Amino acid sequence: MKEKIKIAEVGPRDGLQNESKAVATEDKLKFIDLLRQAGLKNIEATSFVKADKIPQLADAIELSKKLDFQNRNIEYSALTPNLKGYEAALHAGFKEVAIFGAASEAFTKKNINRTIEESLSGFKELTDKAKVDGIKVRGYISTVIACPYEGKISPEKVQAVVSRMQDLGVYEISLGETIGVAVPLEVESLLAVLLKNNKPSFFAGHFHDTYGMAVGNVSKSLEMGLRSFDASAGGLGGCPYAKGASGNLATEDLVYLLENSGFDTGVNLDLLVKASQFMETTLDKPILSKTYLARKKILGL
Ligand code: MG
Fold first, then answer.
1. Under 8 Å between Cβ of 195 and 225
2. What residues contact residue 240 under an 8 Å CB cut-off, 6+ apart?
3. Tally of domains in the chain
4. How far is CA 129 from CA 67, 83, 137, in A?
5. Active-site residue, selected from the candidate residues 34, 35, 49, 239
6. Residues near 298 by Cβ (< 8 Å), separated by ≥ 6?
7. Residue 130's closest CA among 92, 97, 85, 163?
């Protein structure tokens, strides 16, 4: 039997949050449904942030009302920046939420005007409440290899944030290579430190494809035991720190790599291409994932 890999599809949240064009709620729901049809089982649907902060996701409540939370085959999650966002997510029906921090002080200061420690202790109430409510909490750590303001980040700094998030009770930590500059050798150095203290199953890889290194970084992570990865259909979501650069690793590229390396993703690549094509039309912006383009041609789409 093939070994299963968890793919967290972050297109509807991380992807659309970083696209300049806002998408209508019904188009988001159609996109999510197409992702579900393609076989994706973990879908990050939205974020409960202040509407004026991220207008692209201002419809979180409206969207959540139409999500099929009864479907046991799918786990929807939502990003929750604070207790208020968490309460809204809980009320909407989410059974999983995500909190976030960064390994870079400069990045944290610039984004939320707090220190790393202040930002993490700010989640304590939320995670305590989630424990009582039986809600799963996932942790994101940004800038695990490099920061747009601070440059290279040491693995020890990442480990310190991992330990703090672990204290908060997250079940998995997604390691965000926010600007997409890392090469496999750097991923190896980072994981070598983190895996001294935790099992590979505690981590997920979240790579960006700015320099086309994301697939190589996934390969290295697989070699080191990781079996959980984030990706965004079609690679949706630009990178706010590198103009014109591509954003998240495209789910198509990830699925192609994994399925042809003997793993089971549960995803039908051709149906996934159709989901991305729907967003390509909706956003009126070309999708550049290599696998997407190749399959589209083969399928005659
Ligand atoms: Mg991302």
1. yes
2. 18
3. 1
4. 23, 9, 11
5. 239
6. none
7. 97
Cα–Cα distance for residue pair 264/14, rounded to 1 Å: 24
Q: How far is the CA of 206 from the centre of ligand 1 (A)?
A: 7
Main-chain dihedrals φ then ψ at residue 235, nearest 5 degrees: 70, 25
| Angle, helix 290-299 to helix 251-259, in steps of 10 degrees | 80
Domain containing residue 59: CATH number: 3.20.20.70
Residues facing 76 on adjacent strands: 43
Task: Count the Cβ atoms, other than its own, within 10 Å of residue 93.
Answer: 14
- Cα separation, 105 vs 80, whole angstroms: 21
Residues 6+ apart with CB under 8 A from 104: 116, 142, 143, 147, 149, 150, 153, 157
Residue 82 CB partners (closer than 8 Å, separation 6+): 122, 126
User: Do the Cβ atoms of 190 and 146 come closer than 8 Å?
Assistant: no
CA 264 to centroid of ligand 1, rounded, Å: 23
55 alpha carbon – ligand 1 mean position (Å): 18
Cα 178 to ligand 1 centroid, rounded to whole Å:
6
- The residues placing their C-beta within 5 Å of ligand 1, an ion, are 14, 248
Where in the sequence is the domain holding 86, given as residue range(s)?
3-299
Q: Is the pTM of this model over 0.70?
A: yes
What is the mean pLDDT of each successive set of 10 residues along the chain, which is 301 residues long?
Answer: 97 92 96 98 95 89 96 96 97 98 96 94 97 98 95 98 98 96 98 98 97 97 98 86 74 98 98 98 94 96 89
The CA 176 to ligand 1 mean position distance, Å, reads 7
- Is 147 assigned a catalytic role? no
